[in-house]
Design a protein that fits this description.
By secondary structure, the protein is an alpha+beta fold. The chain contains 9 helices and 20 strands. A hairpin with a 2-residue loop joins strand 4 and strand 5. The mean pLDDT is 85.
Length: 408
């Protein structure tokens, strides 16, 4: 009988340990500042459970050496406290690429060794940087950002009461692995994040729209990019990039198709010969340029063209200079305005009467934007944004591989 009691006590202790290790969570969101306009939450313990489940169902992974560089100090040994909810935020009136998170420091000695191991350079005033991230140490906290421009602008935490609700993860998250919340004075819109075997999907609550047929059709097209947006979606996407011009331009509808091509770029420089005569030197380099066609429908095309000229997006030669890839030509016919590259025409696909942006994987895209040139980006098959009525979906589809995303 005593053995049974011993086993029972051990089972209870193990159950309690597993509960606190994998299920019990501190849901308070004390590091989201009052001047944040976008917040991303990741349920770390749910991600851990999903990782363990995937790891156990893929025995081949058990025998692989996951640490390619054994000299690198892992995040688990970095001296940082692992939060139950990773809180990432974007500040109002800052660039779209600037994101921050705040993590507690448990062991300063370990954290200093981690920074040195990961080649962070000390800029003074407790600030560090490497090729990808910027870090500021503030007492027992570590502020991590993709930029250091606005470390001083991070405001005090949001009040503990948020629209008569306690500010915790339950106010922003559903059953997903994470969430994205757009915070404004009027309301907060929450979108769940789900991590599947080979895709990441973000959608708003009570989303009933199915975009699978549209995605399948778009994926069969040869173009690198296809898009179709109404005025409301143009306005929303413009606001993300801090360019609220949709109303002023009077654009009601947009269609776009694009391809990428590698072309020769001529470089002309000047030097001197032995007799100090100036000579012209011509060299060539390969660059990536898009070929595209954009069709804009406007209720007042003259007003739209005047707006482009006033914003200096269009020059006297009818070139749309707001797009840095030249040459192109702007033309108008009735209620339509076309912006088209002159090098190689791209055919617009048929009108779908839906709101979407679809970008296919193309190695040349990563050459165009070096910051995206990494293994994670190269494994992407396509990116999709879709909207129907009040339903919004963003999907990142990855190439199928031996292991699901969480194990890669």
């Amino acid at each position: 009988m005593k053995k049974k009691y011993i086993f029972l006590v051990i089972a209870i202790l193990l159950s309690v340990g597993v509960y606190f290790l994998l299920f019990h969570k501190d849901k308070s969101l004390k590091y989201i500042p009052e001047n944040a306009d976008v917040m991303v939450l990741v349920d770390v313990k749910k991600a851990t459970r999903q990782y363990i489940s995937s790891f156990l169902t893929h025995p081949l992974k058990w025998f692989e050496d996951s640490g390619k560089d054994k000299n690198k100090i892992s995040l688990s040994d970095s001296g940082l406290k692992t939060p139950d909810f990773l809180q990432i935020f974007h500040l109002k009136n800052t660039r779209f690429s600037e994101w921050y998170t705040i993590v507690e420091i448990e062991d300063q000695t370990k954290f200093s060794a981690f920074l040195k191991n990961r080649r962070f350079v000390n800029n003074g005033k407790n600030q560090f940087k490497n090729n990808q991230f910027f870090i500021k140490i503030d007492g027992g906290k570590c502020i991590v950002g993709t930029s250091d421009f606005h470390f001083k602008s991070i405001g005090k935490p949001l009040a503990q009461n948020f629209r008569n609700k306690v500010l915790n993860a339950d106010s922003f998250m559903g059953d997903g692995l994470g969430s994205v919340s757009f915070i404004s004075e009027l309301r907060t819109r929450n979108f769940s994040i789900d991590l599947k075997d080979d895709e990441i999907e973000m959608k708003n609550e009570q989303n009933s729209s199915d975009f699978s047929a549209l995605i399948s059709d778009l994926n069969k097209k040869t173009q690198f990019l296809n898009a179709e947006l109404d005025s409301e979606n143009i306005k929303k996407i413009s606001s993300v990039f801090k360019e609220n011009s949709a109303d002023s331009a009077s654009v009601n509808h947009l269609k776009m198709s694009a391809n990428l091509a590698e072309v020769n770029d001529t470089i002309i420089s000047y030097g001197y010969d032995d007799n100090f005569n100036e000579i012209e030197k011509v060299s060539y380099q390969k660059i990536v340029q898009p070929d595209y066609e954009i069709l804009l429908e406007s209720s007042n095309p003259n007003k739209t063209l005047e707006y482009f000229q006033r914003k200096k997006w269009m020059n006297a030669q009818n070139q749309f200079t707001a797009i840095p890839f030249q040459p192109n030509l702007v033309s108008s016919d009735k209620n339509q305005i076309t912006v088209k590259t002159t090098r190689k025409p791209v055919k617009l696909i048929e009108t779908k009467h839906q709101n979407y942006i679809f970008i296919k994987n193309d190695p040349l895209f990563f050459s165009l934007f070096k910051i995206l040139e990494n293994q994670f980006s190269e494994d992407i098959e396509y990116l999709f944004y879709g909207n129907k009525n009040q339903d919004y979906t963003v999907k990142i589809k990855f190439k199928k591989e031996k292991y699901p995303l969480i194990l890669r």
